[in-house]
Specification:
Blueprint lengths: L1 H17 L10 E3 H7 L4 E5 L2 E4 L3 E3 L4 E4 L5 E4 L4 E4 L2 E4 L6 E5 L7 E6 L4 E4 L1 E4 L1 E7 L3 E4 L2 E3 L6 E4 L4 E3 L2 E3 L6 E3 L8 E3 L2 E3 L9 E5 L6 E5 L2 E3 L7 E7 L6 E6 L2 E3 L5 E5 L2 E6 L2 E3 L12 E7 L4 E6 L2 E3 L3 E7 L2 E3 L10 E3 L2 E2 L2 E2 L2 E5 L3 E2 L10 H7 E2 L10 E2 L12 E4 L14 E2 L1 E2 L4 E6 L12 E3 L5 E3 L9 E2 L2 E2 L2 E6 L5 E10 L12 E3 L7 E6 L5 E7 L4 E7 L2 E6 L6 E9 L2 E9 L1
Parallel strand pairs: 1-5, 3-6, 4-7, 5-8, 6-9, 7-10, 9-12, 10-13, 11-14, 12-15, 13-16, 14-17, 15-18, 16-19, 17-20, 18-21, 19-22, 20-23, 21-24, 22-25, 23-26, 24-27, 25-28, 26-29, 27-30, 28-31, 29-32, 30-33, 31-34, 32-35, 33-36, 34-39, 39-41, 40-42, 46-52
Antiparallel strand pairs: 2-3, 37-38, 43-44, 43-47, 45-46, 48-51, 49-50, 51-52, 53-54, 54-57, 55-56, 55-58, 58-59
Length: 583
Amino acid sequence: MKRFLSICLLIVLVFQTVAQPSGYRSGGLYTLTSLSNILPGAIQITTPHHFRIMQNVTLEPNDTLLLEADDEYILVDNGVSITILGSLQTQERTQPLLIQGDATQSNYFDMFIEDAGFSTLSKIHVQYCQRITLINTPVLIDSCEFDHFSNHVISYMNCHPVIQNSYFHDNQACALQSAVNADGCPTISNNVFYNNVLGNANTPQINIGPGTTDTIRIIGNRIEGVASNMSGGIGIMNMSNQNVTKVLLKDNVIINNRYGYTQNGTRISADIVNNQFIDNNLEVTPNNGGSGISIYGSDTTCAAKLRHNLITGNLWGVTAIYYHHVDMGTVEDPGYNVLYNNGNNGVEYELYNNANSNMDAVGNYWGCDNEAAAEAVIFHQVDNPSYGLVSFQPIYVIEPEIMGFDFLMENNPEALFTYGDMFGEITDDDSIFFYVGCVIPDLRHIYPTITKPLYVTVTPDEAEAQDFLGDYINYNVLYTAATPHQSTRTYVVHVIIGGDVPENELTKINLTPNPVTQGYFTIDNPTDEEFAWTMLTTDGKTVMNGMVTPGIQNINTNHLQKGIYIITFQYKKQFLTKKLIIQ
């Protein structure tokens, strides 16, 4: 309440300074240039398109401030507050507008957007500011940069800001924060959070309180720590036992923090899908943190569902503490989470169920290929009768295999391909054959396209060009596939010269339309054969599979995200790989 009253007092005082000048009218559209004419003591034009704000400025409830496309620079004096009660808009621009405090002073400026209409900050670079506070205001922040803040960068209360395509770095406190008793469901997507919390406080880079009936969406971000061994990646907290907090955490890379993701309290329901939690191990005392994912529940309404996550290099893989309801996979819906090389003090801890709640964790990879080895890295009722039981069998086994190996013209524009795209034939004895006729292609310095299971590495990888055939010399190149537990398999690539090139029935298959724009594509199989097919993401995750029967089949893609997919067809020992784009 004290903070709220101080904000109100500031606003009242500022009203007294800006409501009187000649030329001012309520409900107007203003630019920095026009405000400099109305408030010359507060805003000055220093050079063309450069401004200085020297006193507190408030935009009243029905006013709009437009930051114009040719505005280049705003210097804000020490201790100044900018309060937006109307609407803040930014014109489309090619270069960012730099808003900068006085770096020589410690008392940087503040910005408040409160009880305002829809506002946008687009291509704005803010430096040397105390904080930006959003209260009861719809705001879009897009393609902005925030650095060298002395406090948390953006805090919100009772609103649902959209923050996307932006860069938060080198700030003293967290990048995003909400009060523990404030409602809000932000959408945080495709941002980079790097080296924040330089003050080394015990707080994550994204620190969020309870949500509302909507969902907190944290999607496609990179959250990376550097210097602070007290700073975590993402924290969600609901201690009020009132609101239900729903979270979608998807497609993020959370790396090199004190911990990756933690949720604490009650009435939280999180879907944690397809994220990477890597090397979150900056905590110096493992008993105090260092988990890739930590679920700390005040009761079993603290729930989390984990699917398709990579969790590696942390002090602990997944920790479940006190009460919780954690679903890491069931027989009907396997988890496909990949956990390996998590541990501390010489002991590997992939999952630690430090609670009396039971847990399903079926269909995950635990850095090994057998259930006895998985049991050794899962700590639960078997290890301590006071813990809940973890049901983890059957496990997900990753095989060291190459599923497709092709020479594609689009990846080798300078090569001489006699037959167009060339598709390798993989045999049971781990050989990969390419057949060429009497016209010999030049297959030197070729980048292959390799299809493999998720989290299998291939050495050399497809980004390294190799010589496969030149001047009638077959180089018989070796490729080794390896799993995270270092099970390996080596393939030999042979180019067979002479004779007829065997016809690959799969090359007759057509995919239309490509790109996909209407929610489906068609597989046209003009042959009399049935082919197996698999659709994968570019990182090797299977999203669909089945059989291609003769004729035409329509495949629904409405459940898939936009992007590039790889479709692999197999017939006997023949393989064909095609790229499909969904728009």
